[in-house]
Amino acid sequence: MTTHADSAPAAARPGTAPALWTPGDWNAFFGFGTNILVNLIVLTGLLRFVLQMPNELVFGRILPATGLMLFLSTGYYAWLAWKLAKQTGRSDVCALPSGVSVPHMFIVTFVIMLPILSRTGDPVKAWEAGLTWVFIQSLILMAGGFIAPLIRRITPRAALLGTLAGVSITFISMRPAAEIYMTPVIGVLCFAVILLGWFGGVRYWRGLPAGLVAIALGVVVAWGSSLLGLGIGGMSLERLGAAFSHIGFSVPIPAVGHVFGGFEFIGIILVTAIPFGIYDLVEAMDNVESAEAAGDAYPTTRVLTADGAVSLVGCMMGNPFINAVYIGHPGWKSMGGRIGYSAATGVVVLALTWLGIVSVLLDLIPVVAIAPILLYIGMLIGAQAFQESPRNHAPAIALAFAPHLAAWAKTLIDGALTAAGTSAAAVGFDKLAAVGVLYPGLAKLGEGAILTGLVLPAIAVFIIEREFTKAAGFALAGAVLTFFGFMHGEAVGFAVTPGIALAYALVAAGLYAAARIDAPASRPAVAMRPSAAE
Questions:
Q1: At 208, is the secondary structure helix, strand, or coil?
Q2: Is 102 a residue whose pLDDT tops 80?
Q3: What's the mean pLDDT in 41-51?
C-alpha cells in the first residue's frame, strides 16, 4: 500500500496535467466510500424510522437531492485537487474528503425535525423545517468567512466543543445505546467490533473498515437467526422483497416552495442554525489547516463557499442535511488517495440514490447493527471536548452538558405524556415536582440549549482564568440572547424571558465590577488559555 511517507512529491513541471486515478485511489475509494455509504444508510434510517417519513418522500425527493449534493461536493473537491496538482506539478495531492455532516445529521433530525413532527404530526412540515435550517446554515457558511476568525478568537474551545459534546451525549448517544441493549446479541457484538477497530487499532481481514465489518456481522447474525426462526434483529424476507419496489429512477425536483414553507418555524430554527453555522466555519477551517499540514494547501474561502453553495443547491432540491469537509484528509492521503477517489465516490453515491438502491440496503441491514456506529460518533464528539481543551476547563465542559440534559429529559417527558394522551400542564407542575420532575425548570434551561451550552461554559472558563471582563461580556451576551428568546425561550421574540435576562445582566455587572476591583498582583498563577488556533 502506498503511504504518504514513501511517496515523495513528483518533480513534474507545473502545468503538467496530473493523473486522475492512481493505484492508491482504490484504497481510499473503498475506505471513504464505505464511510459515505454507512452515513447514507444511517440518514435513511433516521428519515424512515425516527421521523416516520413516507417512502415516497424519502426515496423520491430527499435521497436524490442528497445524492446530487454529494456528487457536486466530491466532484468539486476532486477538481480543486486536480487544479492544485497542476499548478504545483506534484503527483501526491489528495482531494479533501466531504459529505453529509454527521453531527448535524442528528441535530437537524432530533433537535429540529422531530420536535416539529411531534408538534404538528406532519412529516412534510418537519421536512420543510429541516430545509429551512440548511438554507440558513448555507448562507452563514458562505458569508461567515469574515466573522469566523473573530468568533474563534473570542470563544474558548471548551465552550465551542462543550455544547457539541452535550448534544452528542444526549441526542446522539442515548437512543443508540438503548437500541443496542434491546437487541444485545447483535448490538453488543457489533459495538465490540467498532471499539476494537476504531479505538483499539485492530486491523480486520484485508484491511476492511471496522464499520463495514460490524455491519456485515450484524447482517449475518440477524438473517441467520431469522432463517432459524429466532427473529433476532427483526429481519423479514417480505420487507426485503418490498424494498425492491423502491428501485427505479428518481431525479431531484426543485423544492423552493418547501424551503420557504419552513420559515413558519424560523424562531425555533435560528436558535440552532446560527451557532451550528458558526461551528461549521470553525470545523472547516480546522480541516483545511489539517490538509495544509499534510502538504496540500487549499484556499479556506473557496472551501467555505463551496460547502455553503452545494448545501444551498441540495436544500433547494429537497435535501435537509448540510454538507461539510470531513476530517481525515491526512489518513486518505496516507492510503494513497489522490484525485480520483473523491470523484468516483460521488458517482457511486449518485447511482445509489437516484436508482433507489439505498432502500434495499436498509432492509437488508438491521438498524441495531448501525446503532454502535452512532454511539461511537457520540463518544468521539463527547471525548473531543475534554481532549482538546485544557484540563482546568473540564468543569466548564461539564456545565455545557446541563442544558442539553434538560432538553433531552423534557423531550422524553413530553413524548411519554403525549403517548398517554395528556401533557405536563394537564398533569400539573406541582404534582410532577412532588415526584422530582421540575418541569418548568427543565423547560427554561433546555430551551435554546445549543447557545446556553455555549454561553455558560464560556463564562465559566473566563472565571477559571480570572478574565472577569471577558466573562462579563459573555454574560451580557447571554442577557441579550435570552431577552430575544434565542436562549431559554421557545421561540424568538421580544422580552421572551425577562427574568432570566435580568439575571444574566446582573451577573455581567458583578463580573465587570470584580474585574475592576481585582488587583493583578493578587491573581494566582494559572495556566494560560490556549487560543482556538492551537
A1: coil
A2: no
A3: 87
Task: State the Cα–Cα distance between residues 291 and 331, nearest whole angstrom.
Answer: 10
Beta-carbon-side half-sphere exposure of residue 1 (alpha carbons within 13 Å): 15
Percentage above 90 pLDDT, the chain = 43
- Among 180, 218, 212, smallest CA distance to 226 is for 218
Contact 455, 480 (CB under 8 A): no
131 near 258, Cβ under 8 Å? yes
Half-sphere exposure of 269 (CA within 13 A, CB side): 24
Q: Report d(CA 295, CA 293) in Å as an integer.
A: 5
Residue whose entry in the numeric block shows the C-alpha cell 421521523: 51
Place of cell 457511486: 348
Residues 491, 268 contacting (CB under 8 angstroms): yes
Helix (H), strand (E) at residue 183: none
Judge contact between 415 and 124, C-beta under 8 A.
no
The pLDDT of residue 114 is above 80: yes
Q: Choose between 110 and 207: higher pLDDT.
A: 110
Comparison of pLDDT for 382 and 218, the residue scoring more:
218
Which residues does 124 contact at the CB level (< 8 Å), separation at least 6?
Answer: 57, 258
- Per-residue model confidence as pLDDT tens digits over 167-205: 878 877 888 899 899 999 999 999 999 899 878 888 888
Burial of 195 from C-beta contacts in 10 A (0-12 / 13-18 / 19+): middle
For residue 100, the cross-strand partners are 323
pTM for the full model?
0.72
Residue (of 95, 35, 23, 46) closest to 348 by Cα position? 35
> How many angstroms separate the CA atoms of 460 and 466, rounded?
10
pLDDT in tens, 146-161: 666 666 678 888 887 8
Nine cell digits for residue 376: 461511537
